[in-house]
Amino acid sequence: MNSVEFGKKCRPYNKAYYALFGEVPSPSDYACSNDEFLETMRRCVEKKVKIDVLLQEVKNPKDVKQ
After folding, report:
1. Does the predicted TM-score (pTM) go above 0.85?
2. What is the rounded CA–CA span in Å between residue 64 and residue 17?
3. What is the pLDDT of residue 20?
4. Main-chain dihedrals φ then ψ at residue 39, nearest 5 degrees
5. pLDDT computed for residue 1 by the predictor
6. What are φ and ψ of residue 2, in 5° steps?
7. What is the pLDDT of residue 60?
8. Residues pairing with 9 in the sheet
9. Between the CA of residue 50 and those of 4, 5, 30, 46, 65, what are the distances in Å?
10. How many other C-beta atoms are found inside a 10 Å radius of the C-beta of residue 48?
11. Are 19 and 12 spatial neighbours (Cβ–Cβ below 8 Å)?
């Protein structure tokens, strides 16, 4: 999926995540595909857990290839 599609699909989860935790995680900070990130955001909102519980953060986001 392209970045515009991805952004539109993430929007409702970003809003819900922000309401829960006061922040919105960036996909570039995690070692996963956009599809995996979107699914993880859905699960985070559903289970009310921070994304760090479900995804491993990359130490250097520039090392992630998408």
Report:
1. no
2. 23
3. 97
4. -65, -40
5. 77
6. -80, 175
7. 55
8. none
9. 24, 23, 13, 11, 23
10. 10
11. no
Residues contacting residue 28 through CB under 8 Å, at least 6 positions apart: 61, 64, 66
Read off the tokens for 41. Answer: 């955001």
Amino acid type, 33 = S
pLDDT in tens, the chain (66 residues): 789 999 999 999 999 999 999 999 999 998 899 999 999 999 999 999 999 999 887 755 555 554
Residue type at 26?
Answer: S
3-state secondary structure the chain: CCHHHHHHHHHHHHHHHHHHHCCCCCHHHECCCHHHHHHHHHHHHHHCCCHHHHCCECCCHHHCCC
